[in-house]
Amino acid sequence: QVQLIESGGGLVQAGGSLRLSCAASGRTCSTCAMGWFRRAPGKEREFVSTISWSGRDTHYADSVKGRFTISRDNAKNTAYLQMNTLKPEDTAVYYCAASSSVLIPIAEYDYNYWGQGTQVTVSS
User: How far apart, in whole angstroms, are the C-alpha atoms of residue 21 and residue 2?
Assistant: First the structure.
């Protein structure tokens, strides 16, 4: 099984930056696409970004495009989400996920493995 652990969340002022990390352990999947989702208060969990297993293909939600950057280091079994110019509406629990079957997974059901989430709070 693939185990995912997020880290890097915390409290930041609007306009600031955070970098989230997603470390994979157990039986890692080097060919899995990785993705980030988030659940804001009172909202459904929503797609944020994804990156193919090779790192050559990425996709972003319109709400974060130009501000967030997803990357991965397969040698370290780690994916990252660099979040810049953070806004209060970015406040959410951020979840890392992995997909073994879809090149650029966007829907929740495309993902096989999920982390526990890390809280990101952006103050105004």
Answer: 16
CB 45 within 8 A of CB 111: no
Instruction: Give me the numbers of helices (H) and strands (E) for the chain, helices first please.
Output: 0, 11
Helix/strand/coil for 45:
coil
- Give residue-wise pLDDT tens across range 82-103: 999 999 999 999 999 999 988 8
Structure tokens at 22: 């997603």
Structure tokens at 109: 């059901």
Residue type, 108: E
**Category of 40 on φ-ψ map: left (φ > 0), alpha (ψ -120 to 50) or beta:** beta
| Mean pLDDT estimate for the chain | 94
Q: How far apart are CA 106 and CA 124, in angstroms?
A: 29
- Closest to 118 measured CA to CA, from 5, 3, 9: 9
